[in-house]
Amino acid sequence: MKKVLITGAAGFLGSHLSDKFIKEGYHVIAMDNLITGDMRNIEHLMKLKQFEFINHDVTKHIHIEGELDYIMHFASPASPIDYLKIPIQTLKVSSLGTHNVLGLARVKKARVLVASTSEVYGDPNVHPQPEEYWGNVNPVGPRGCYDEAKRFMEAITMAYHNTHAVETRIVRIFNTYGPRMRLNDGRVLPAFIGQALRGEDLTMFGDGSQTRSFCYVSDLVDGIYKLLLSDYVLPVNIGNPSEITIKEFGEEILKLTGAKQKLISLALPKDDPKQRQPDITKAKALLGWEPKVNRAEGLKITYEYFKSLPHEELFKTEHRDLEKLNK
Ligand code: UDP
């Protein structure tokens, strides 16, 4: 049985990856320090003998007994509200944490895939974004702690590949959604659905003309799995090219939920990218991958998930400090 270590396994993407590797017949070592992760995301796997959980902060030395075939480095806060709250942890997990993960991969002779992001393109001047575009990032702005840490992650990953012949893969993940997103993490989809369910107006930042392209989580996980098993070392975009403005997206959520509220405009956060759409030519050619789930289907499943959460979850307010983003 092949063994995979997944860092950030109790998070949104980490937990879906854990499901995928279990389904594909792997032994999964799930690691998380639960700063932004939630044990409820992996509760259903805890009883399996091929699944083990280690509560550990990957910025500290990582010790794993025995052999390891693969490492998936998915530990990191990933929403603007999170990295405004914990910028130093955000920087450390993708720098020191990636260093530890690469060192571990080297001694175990394991293949490692690191989770990079469309944020490496910053507020892009090239549209859609191909992997060759180097980006337009403000290192000292509010997103700098995330964007620069992920750029460092890519650089150190290439250095370990070139210097120590570690087998590495780099995925650049674009906006992804689905069940197990945190309701109160400030991201636009849980924010809008939560607001629709609570009977509040939907908080659109700016005039809503900025665009994003949303990928359903099962498509993303399939693409990442294919990339891991491929022999391509340079970064690959995985995301859904179907682009939409945030205003149109808000209108879709109102329609889906049947909510009678309206969209209201709040100040646009500093350095909020104006447009984002993945160029997935590489993923199609190299991996034979493209997304299958359209937004209408994906949103329906995700809405059902949020509706099924305990009522009191919906009204937890401690993370909903949206105003902070606008300071
Ligand atoms: N956004 C919004 N209202 C919200 C939360 C986010 O209009 O309550 C906007 C945000 O300004 C951005 C887009 O939605 O333009 C996506 O934001 P998110 O935080 O989900 O992801 P990211 O900016 O990292 O792509």
Q: Topology, pairings included?
A:
Elements: E1 3-7, H1 12-23, E2 27-32, E3 51-55, E4 70-73, H2 80-85, H3 87-108, E5 111-117, H4 144-164, E6 168-173, E7 176-177, H5 188-198, E8 202-205, E9 211-213, E10 215-216, H6 217-229, E11 236-238, E12 243-245, H7 246-257, E13 263-266, H8 281-287, H9 295-308, H10 311-314
Parallel strand pairs: 1-2, 1-4, 2-3, 4-5, 5-6, 6-11, 7-10, 8-13
Antiparallel strand pairs: 9-12
Bound molecules: uridine-5'-diphosphate.
Uridine-5'-diphosphate binds next to helix 5 and strand 8.
Q: How does this structure look, described?
A:
- With about 325 residues, this protein is an alpha/beta fold.
- It has a single domain (about 5-325), classed as NAD(P)-binding Rossmann-like Domain (Rossmann fold, 3-Layer(aba) Sandwich).
- The chain is built from 10 helices and 13 strands.
- A 7-stranded parallel sheet has the order 3-2-1-4-5-6-11, sandwiched between helices.
- Helix 1 links the parallel strand 1 (about 5) and strand 2 (about 25-30).
- The longest helix is centred in the first third of the chain and has 22 residues, at about 85-110.
- The radius of gyration is 19 Å and the shape is globular.
- The model is unreliable at about 320-325 (pLDDT under 50).
- Uridine-5'-diphosphate binds next to helix 5 and strand 8.
Search tags:
binds uridine-5'-diphosphate, alpha/beta, 10 helices, Rossmann fold, globular, two-stranded parallel ribbon
